[in-house]
Amino acid sequence: MNIAIEQAEQREASQRGMALMYGGAGLSVALAVGLWVAREQPAALFVGLWAPSVLALATAIRGARWLIPPALLSMAASIALWFFVDKAAGLFVGLWVPTILALAATMKEANRG
């Protein structure tokens, strides 16, 4: 296969993936606003954390990929804590996800320079 065609296909796949990430982040924000208006503030905060996490994940995929598993593990732990243990603990652990992914993005930029 022609290298130019492969590169075009990779760009197209990347753009589709980014559109999915943007859509997920937008949906998270809309759902969080709906929950807030419905006076479900703790749930709104919990769901609101998903938007920066999804956007940071999109950046991390292109950078320090080794940080993705700890971020996904933190996300799973956050959801489990929220539903089965304690909502405050779920929020606390949920903050780790965008933090870990922001670290990935920062490391990507540091390695670029």
Distance between the termini: 33 Å
Elements, N to C (H/E): HHHHHH
Mean pLDDT: 83
- Strand percentage, roughly? under 5%
Taking pLDDT < 50 over at least 5 consecutive residues as the criterion, the unreliable ranges are none
Which class of secondary structure composition applies to the elements? mainly alpha
Annotation field: number of helices: 6
Radius of gyration: 16 Å
C-alpha geometry: globular
User: How many domains, in number, for the residues?
Assistant: 1
Question: What's the story with the biggest beta sheet?
Answer: none
Helical proportion, percent range = over 70%
Please give the number of β-strands.
0
Overview in brief:
The protein is an all-alpha fold. 25% of the residues are buried. It has helices spanning 3-37, 41-48, 50-61, 68-84, 87-94, 96-112.
Describe the structure in your own words.
Helix 4 runs antiparallel to helix 5 (about 85-95). The protein has one domain (about 5-110). The chain is built from 6 helices and no strands. The chain is mainly α and about 110 residues long.
Strands, helices and their partners?
Layout: H1 3-37, H2 41-48, H3 50-61, H4 68-84, H5 87-94, H6 96-112
Helix pairs in contact: 1-2, 1-3, 2-5, 3-6, 4-5, 4-6
Features:
single chain, 113 residues, mainly alpha
